[in-house]
Amino acid sequence: MSNDKNGKKYDLEERTAKFGENVIEFCNKVFKGPINNPLITQLVKCGTSVGANYCEADDAESKADFKHKIGICKKETREAKHFIRMMVVAVPELKEDSKALWQEAKELNLIFNSIYKKVK
């Protein structure tokens, strides 16, 4: 799914992959401990699965399959927003670093919501 947006190539597969990479980089900054470890695990799982599920949606066998996979992308981006927020509670010094990541999760969620609603 690529198109030209303001002279730049817009590729949702690349954007979701970059989001997953940024989640990993963000989580690598977090010190390990009994509170942070489960948050790291959950955030890495949902943040990296967005791109994988989008790839599966892109190769869907039917419209229903496509819609289902896009629905998973919606859920995973919403979950990522939640765990980014919880990570900031656990590690307040990451608040500034988290803002762009949370914003990207929000934007991706809005994109997937829009796609989901348009699929009949």
UniProtKB/TrEMBL annotation:
Question: Sorted alphabetically, which Pfam families does this protein's record hold?
Answer: 23S_rRNA_IVP (PF05635)
- Protein name listed in UniProt: Four helix bundle protein
What Gene3D superfamilies does the record tag this protein with? 23S rRNA-intervening sequence (1.20.1440.60)
Q: Which species does this protein come from? A: Candidatus Curtissbacteria bacterium RIFCSPHIGHO2_01_FULL_41_11
Question: Which SUPFAM superfamilies did the record assign?
Answer: IVS-encoded protein-like
Alphabetized InterPro entries for the sequence: 23S_rRNA-intervening_sequence (IPR012657), 23S_rRNA_IVS_sf (IPR036583)
Source organism lineage? Bacteria, Candidatus Curtissiibacteriota
